Amino acid sequence: MSLGRVLVVVPTYNERDNLEIIAGRLRTSVPEAHLLVVDDNSPDGTGRVADMLAAADDHVHVLHRTGKAGLGAAYVAGFGWAREQGYDVVVEMDADGSHAPEQLPRLLTALENADLVLGSRYVPGGAVVNWPKSRELLSRGGNLYTRLLLRLPLQDATGGYRAYRRSVLDGLALDEISSQGYCFQVDLAWQTWRQGHRVVEVPITFVERERGESKMSRKIVAEALWRVTVWGLRSGRSRRPVG
């Protein structure tokens, strides 16, 4: 079963040391896929590296943005570009190497019988490498809180390695999304599930970045907790039953 044209969207901000490596691994792992780098005017020259890669490879594309507007806004811009260019599948992937391109075929295979596939750290076979225990506990706790409050039957709704059918993105209110980080991922997964789409999780091994600095912050975590709480209270009896 052919999935059609696949686009991998990789947002970047100061990822000069990682971008060429991750692009090379992606092009080796899934040669037919295209890569879109969405760069938020990185001061370290990431955008110039992206342009160099695009000039040498017609499967690599670059979307330059004027400033740092956050992960969610970068993905929404990338999704819009994917729609304009007629891609059938859109993949979210980090630039820092935490999402192994070598595992992408697993997500794409699962998408043959699903509408959204989440690369999950917390289903059997999934793993986290080189995270401090405090960070893993925070992540697991956030996912548990999300499951309980939204009744969302997913083990890793906050994960950012995922593959969507374009038809799913077409039905989401992307222009109304202002959330970032963890919260952006929960928002899209929850919308997708509530609309009745098939959402499945496949195990991945998540590896903490080796180069550069994490973009995660207390502000992003606090935003996620606040928004999930509000969504859970508002949804009330309209929630879809778990199962």
Task: Please sum up the structure shown.
This protein is α/β, with parallel strands linked by helices and 243 residues long. Helix content is 42%, strand content 17%. It has a 7-stranded mixed sheet with strand order 3-2-1-4-7-5-8, with helices on both faces. Strands 6-9 form a two-stranded parallel ribbon.
**Based on helices, strands and strand pairing, what is the structural class?**
alpha/beta
Instruction: Please provide the ordered H/E string of secondary-structure elements.
Output: EHEHEHEHEEHEHHEEH
Number of strands: 9
Largest sheet: 7 strands, mixed
Q: Share of helix among residues? A: 40-55%
User: What is the rounded distance between the termini?
Assistant: 27 Å
Number of helices: 8
- What fraction of the residues are assigned to beta strands by DSSP? 15-25%
What is the average per-residue confidence, as pLDDT, rounded to a whole number? 89
Quick tags:
single chain; 243 residues; alpha/beta; 7-stranded mixed beta sheet; two-stranded parallel ribbon; 8 helices; 9 strands; 17% strand; globular; disordered C terminus
Describe the structure.
The protein is α/β, with parallel strands linked by helices and 243 residues long. The protein has 8 helices and 9 strands. It has helices at residues 16-29, 46-56, 71-85, 104-111, 133-150, 166-170, 181-194, 218-235; strands at 6-12, 34-39, 60-64, 89-92, 116-120, 127-129, 162-165, 199-203, 205-207. The strands form 2 sheets. A 7-stranded mixed beta sheet has the order 3-2-1-4-7-5-8, with helices on both faces. A two-stranded parallel sheet has the order 6-9. α1 (16-29) links the parallel β1 and β2. α7 (181-194) packs parallel to α8 (218-235). It starts with 5 loop residues before the first strand and ends in an 8-residue tail after the last helix. Mean pLDDT is 89; it is low at 237-243.
